[in-house]
Amino acid sequence: MTEIKGSFDPAFQSIVDCFQEQYKLGLDQGSSLALTCEGETVVDIWSGHRDVAKTKLWEEDTIVNVFSSTKNATSLCAFVLADRGQLDFFAPVAQYWPEFAQNGKEKVLVSHVMSHSAGLPGWDKPVSVTDIHDADKVAALFEEQAVWWEPGTELGYHAISIGNIMGEIVKRISGRSVGNFFREEIAEPLNIDFHIGLDDKHHDRVAEIHQPVAQDPSTLFDMEEGSIMYRVMTNGIMTSPDALTPEWRRAEVPAAGGHGNGRSIAESMALLANGGSYKDKQLFSEETAQYALKEQIQGTDLVLGEPLRWGIGFALPVNNSTWHSYFTGDQVCFWAGWGGSMSIADMEKKVSFGYTPYMMEEGAIGAERSMNLGKSLSDQLLKL
Q: What's the pLDDT at 378?
């Protein structure tokens, strides 16, 4: 039997049992999971290894690239700025970034970007993975580009672009990169071990992201050449081996380059679950936190091909989605990362959840393992 390390409140035994069951089923090889309730950590567990060769155990301080769960941390930066009156979610992006208004983008609102409806899910010009490490270069490309649809009328996952655009907005307002802003305003005050741009001193404790069956993101979908899905998934999208390079780890990629673990994701999402407050620090108001739950758009995503619903910066449950149909209620927001990392906040129950594996599941966001853990959490929430 796989040894589970860490600690947990016996009231949450069912989630711990589900976590262990994933190892029995062969769906997990190394990961961490954490849960907070009313601002207190009630589950903080980890198990397995952090490398494919199984020579290194997953330790308490192991971190891993969480891919799109990074978007949650970037959105939290925007919530801090909004609460300070420095950012208006419903203002044009060009109010903070004047050069952005070129080619008809003067009507793109910050809320459009944060709900994946801005019409800028990808680039017109060819972009490499190395290019997306360069925030200034990518910002310049977006300045000259036109939208792919009327902002706010369609939903299409801005897989990488949301981070670049929001990162530039954060920089224009604060004078700091999004990675530095997150570290100085959120991670350090709350002692959260999450990084957008990882210092070399932390690289030795990073788990090796691994896909049992190698996948390029462009192979995950049945795409028609020339479609919006095709244009996004074949230009500027990383592959899993990219996450193993020092260059990727160092780069501030605000949509996909974050490194953390279950604990640091749960702690970050605890800010939303507790109305902007965590560890006796109020980083934004409960009123600001509620924007995560205010629906901006709903529909079949033009990039992912799934029914989705977005608030400001965070996804909301949709009953007919294969990813999260097990959640009920109107106080839950979440998102996940390629391969299976998970980030969830329930503002009614004041619960936050984080999960990070090193062995990736098939699919864009996750599959059987993610469904099992999500269903277990949903069942647990019904008991609270």
A: 86
Q: In this predicted model, what pLDDT tens digit does every residue of 176-208 receive, in sequence order?
A: 999 999 999 999 999 999 999 999 999 999 999
Return d(Cα 294, Cα 330) in angstroms, integer.
10
pLDDT averaged over every residue in the chain: 93
HSE-CB for 121 with a 13 A CA cutoff: 27
Q: Which domain holds residue 17?
A: 5-383
Closest C-alpha to 306, from 332, 336, 331, 329: 336
List of E strands, the chain: 5-8, 30-37, 40-48, 64-65, 195-196, 258-260, 277-278, 281-282, 297-300, 307-310, 315-316, 332-336, 342-346, 351-357
- Tokens coding 112: 């459009």
Contact between 336 and 343 under an 8 Å Cβ cutoff? The reply is yes
**Cβ 223 vs Cβ 232: under 8 Å:** no
pLDDT class of 320 with cuts at 50, 70, 90? low
pLDDT tens per residue, range 148-162:
999 999 999 999 999
147, burial (CB in 10 Å: exposed 0-12, middle 13-18, buried 19+): middle
Residue 151: C-alpha distances to residues 108, 123, 197 (Å): 6, 16, 30
Looking at residue 208, its amino acid is E
Task: Give the number of other CB atoms < 10 A from CB of residue 307.
Answer: 18
Q: Do you know the residue count of the chain?
A: 384
Model pLDDT, residue 225: 86
Would you call 270 exposed, middle or buried from its count of C-beta atoms within 10 A (0-12, 13-18, 19+)?
A: buried
CATH number reported for the structural domain that contains residue 343 in this entry = 3.40.710.10
Of the two residues 285 and 129, the one the predictor is more confident about is: 285
pLDDT of residue 222: 72
Are the beta carbons of 362 and 11 closer than 8 angstroms?
A: no
What span, in angstroms and rounded, lies between the C-alpha atoms of 48 and 32? 9
The whole-angstrom separation of Cα 352 and Cα 34 is: 8
Task: Indicate the number of domains in the chain.
Answer: 1
Confidence of residue 215 (pLDDT cuts 50, 70, 90): low
Q: Cα–Cα distance between 337 and 65 in angstroms, integer?
A: 9
